[in-house]
Fold this protein.
Amino acid sequence: MSNTQLHVPGWLDAHIPDIALAFNTTGIVLTALVLLGIAYAAWNPVSRLHLNRVSFRLLVCALISNLIFAATSIPTFSGPSAGCSFMAFLGLGILMFSSCMFFCTALNLQLVLVYHINGNSMEKFYYIGSVVVVAILNITPYAAGQFGYYFGTCWFNNPLPDVQFRWLVGSQSVWILLMSTGEVMRNPRGMSTSSTSFSIPPSPAILVYRSIILRIGLYPLLSCCLSFTGCILDIWLTKNTEPTELQFRLSFLDLCVFALRPTLYTLIAATDPGFLRALRALRNHSKSKHSTGPTSSNEHTNSESHELQFYSNNSRAPVHVQLEREQKSTTWGAESNKSRVEQSSAPLKSFETQSVMSQGGAVGARRMPSFVEQEPAQSVISLAEREQEEGQELEAQTRSLAEDIARQI
């Protein structure tokens, strides 16, 4: 059948409202479930930190917008009415607000990584600017009476195709296309140098946040594809109102593009790295709370040995000497002399108080370490500990800076 021939109604025409209802209901259910999971993860202090991100809050606003859009897209009106006009105003306004949120997500990524602007301080301007733009572009056609019942849906309903086309392009399509173009625009030079502008050396934290940055760029990309396709189809369908076979197929494609938006956005949001880390944190916390770990092996080790702390007259540094139980029966004298072996099993406390202070005794001299020989070893150990502390401090500063950047994007 040629695409220029008039469309002959078939079985698909009768089931188009059912298909739209199935798509919208699926989007509503999935989006509601994901939003409930996000709300619980944001409420729980164990997982709240993983969702503390500007782009994730913008994503949540976009999900709420698409949830309302899916609810308003369910066919509930069969003719012109004031309720249908308001539903068209609400649906188109929410659709544009969702596009604004994804545009702000892409804009915030550029401002933070390229121009080093704090994303947290810019977040309120994203919301205010989006509300102002949506209000101006949707209140004007609503006040002019351009919304109403149009071929089974609530949309622009001016009887003159040219006037309807001008209102569609001037108040919706041009702005959504501009935002879709801005969502995929990048500054290659700035993005290539942004990783070194913060003086952050390569670290596991940066490698972790790289996946978040790539995922953040995926949201505007999907929004650009869907918004661009929907706007082009709307413009073409408005200019070609003759019911041909091509017009019917493109109209059905346009319906699928808009009806599947909530489902596609929800599926991508459900696999967000931050949201998945929050769920893993909740799961690990639940496991650790209900599990009973075995007795630590350190307690057994400490029960088998005694730690004595000696203080030298020449040095204030404590010296630790380990006396193993298995050696106390053979420390003093020869094995053949039973009397001296029995004396070696005397209380350990008397040895701590008397034999340590007598430096001239043979036993004390044999057991007491040389403090002169330990001083270089202690200096080497202190130097290594100092270097280790400096490395840990540098790593902590790097991780703190990386986490701060991750909260801004």
